[in-house]
Every structure is written in C-alpha cells, then in structure tokens.
Amino acid sequence: MKSKQSMNIAFFGVGAVGVVMARALFELCHKNALGTPSFVFVVRSKERAEALFFRNPELLECSTFVEVEDFEGVFKNPDAYAKTFKNCDVLINASVPSFNLPIMELSLVFGAHYADLASDIYTKTLLKTQRFTQQDHAEAFETKGLFGLINLGISPGVSNFLIGERIAHFHNFPYKTRVKKITLALLEEICSKELVFSWAPHVAIEEISFKPAYFKNHALETLAPFSESKTYAFPYFQNSVEVYPVFQEEVISLKQSFPEVPEIRIHVGGNEVELMKNLYQLNLLSNRYCYGYKDSEISLSSIIKEVIPKMKSPEAIEEYIHNGTIKHAQFCAVADLTLEVRYPNNPKKVTSSESVGVSFSEVTSLVKTPFSGATYISYPTGIGAAVLLFHGLMYAQTHPLKGVLVTEALPQLFGPALCDVIKRELGSYKLNLFHAITS
Per the structure, how many domains does the chain have? Predict the structure, then answer.
C-alpha cells in the first residue's frame, strides 16, 4: 500500500478566509497522518500577509511567501516560477474571481488540481450562457486527470453539498420523488457597538445592486433589488427575519446540476443586508453622477464605497470580540426543498418538504485560538472550503476525480460513508448541520 505523503498547497492571495482555510488544511493533514503540509502564498506584500498569521506561528514555519508586484507577471511567465509550483498538489485562488482562469491555466501547466471560492457572476454574459467561465477548462482538466473544485466555501459550497446529498438520497427511495423547488435562505447577522463588516463593502454593494435572478418554470427571471421580500424563521435564531432575493452562484450551479428542477431561488437577510437596503432605497448606491460633478465622474456609489468603513484586520476583530464591541454574530444557510412524491399504491401526488442547512454562531469562542480574528462569515467559509477540498484531494489519490466540479456533484461521487465523514468533520469545527422533514 502506498504510504501517505504530506501535501503541497499554493494560495494566490491570502485574507481572512485564506488564513482559516490554511489552518484547517494544516490540522486535517495532521489528523489524517499526512504530516505537516507545505504552503506557498503568492502575495503582493509579504509583510501584510505574514501579519494575518499572528495566531499561527506553526503555519509560518511551513510556509513560503512569494512577493510579486502583481499576479500578471506570474501568469505571463510561468517558467520563472517552475521551482515554486512544480510539486504543488493544488493551486487555490483566494483572491478575486477575475484570477480564476489564469490560475486554472497555471494548474494545467504544472499538473496541479485547482480550487476557488467564487465565480465572476455579475455579468450579462453569465446570465445569457448560464455557465461559469471556469467550466471552459473542463475538458482540459479531464484530459489531464485533474480536478477543479469551484465555488467552495459555506454558501456556495457546503450548502450545495448538503443539497446534492439529499437529492442523491432521493434516487434510492422505493418511490418516485421529484424536486419541484429549491429555495435557499441566508442569514448574516451581527450585534456590535460599531459598524463592522464581515466582508468587503464594495463586494456587498456589487451583489446587492445587481438585479436578483432566479428560475421559475425553467426560465431565468430577474427582479428589482429588494423587491418581493418575505419573512423567514431561521433555525437556532430567536427572531424572524425579512429576507430579500439576491443572485449568487447557487442559482446557476444548482440548475446545471439538477435541470429537472423548475424553480430555484435564493434570499438573504440580516442587519448588514438591512444597511445595504437603506442605502439602496436612499439612492446612495446609484452610479449616476452627482450634480455638478459630472466632469470628474464622481457618483454617489463611488463616494459610498470610499467613505464606508472597510473590513477590519483579524487583530482588530479579535480585539473587538475581546472588549465586547462585537457581542455575537450568526450565519445560517437553509435550503428548503419542495418535493412531489408518488407512492406505488397511491395514484395521487403527495407534496412533501425537507430542509437542510448549516449554522455558525460561535465566533466569540474563537478568540485566542488559531482561528482568532476570523469573522462569522470568513470562518465557516474557510472551514467549508478546506474540508471539501481536503477530502477531494484524498479521494483523488485512489479514485478518479477529474474535470471542473461544483460541490453538489460530490456526494454522488463520494458515496454515503465519505459524505458522513465530511459532515462530522464540519461539525467538529462548530458548524451546526441540520436536516428536517417538515411535511
């Protein structure tokens, strides 16, 4: 039997999610007797990148930081970095989605697997093609026997995985079960004395300002932002929340994976979303020029992006939690599945409902741990990405796993036993998974 070897992992960019992801991969390697992994971080500032690991001296000991003026130099001249990447098992885009394709091309050059956290979805092209740009490289990855796991994280990511697992179970039922509707609801709630964003405000503004898209009767429809809201009761959260339609990767991804499902929607709520709603309804996210400033091309949106508080550093987040500025926070992703069941001896169709999801609310317990400084969004995102990627890499050592894959495709490939291992691993990192048959 071939002995297990430690992993060589490369990150392009590093931030709050990347640090969590690297720490979790470090722990997973040790837990599975793989020894200490080696990390390469391609960054623009080694000093700023190393500062993010202020609670992780062990990671610094097994990490190399490659400081570059910009990533384009790496993409245009991969031969100059052959020594850096030639033994890497996986290249991870922990930066912006616009780097997905060039990093994928590097993966193909160096024979490494690939992973990313998000896609570039806020374009008319994606709405028209209903296809992620990373999928253009599917054939090349398959030919080389490599996999590309795209849209990893918590939502998209773990949420898709849980949906895929349930639908895989439906195929094994002794009666016909059809999924008529998938509706996702996301909660992003933080209670703090100061305005603290869990993600980059300009990203939130871009997402909120984009017309929400959803599938109804298999057709892609759009809505005005913050229209058609509804009240939703999230598990493990005391109050009902007003949630609003948004467009995220899951809408396209789930429709690709389960084309037979006629309706797919996603909503989001919480106090960060309420702030964005207020800005939007006050017309402060408008791209129109301010009166008297047309020549200088100053828009209301550009002013808001400039003056709104930026994301805090992990050290600042740790201090906010330590001194009580951040009192508590919660993330939750719930997928409600509406089913149509046909029993063998009953000619009538029976409607049934199930819910699967994940919740995280223990951000304050991370203080002074290796994950200290993570937010209630970056922590579950990094954990979800790391667990799914790690088990993908392990699975690929003994089974064929190739092509460009979305996470809801993994349960059918992995099988029930490995899916159970993954869910237990997520639970060990304080992510609360739940499943309920509601009718």
Answer: 1
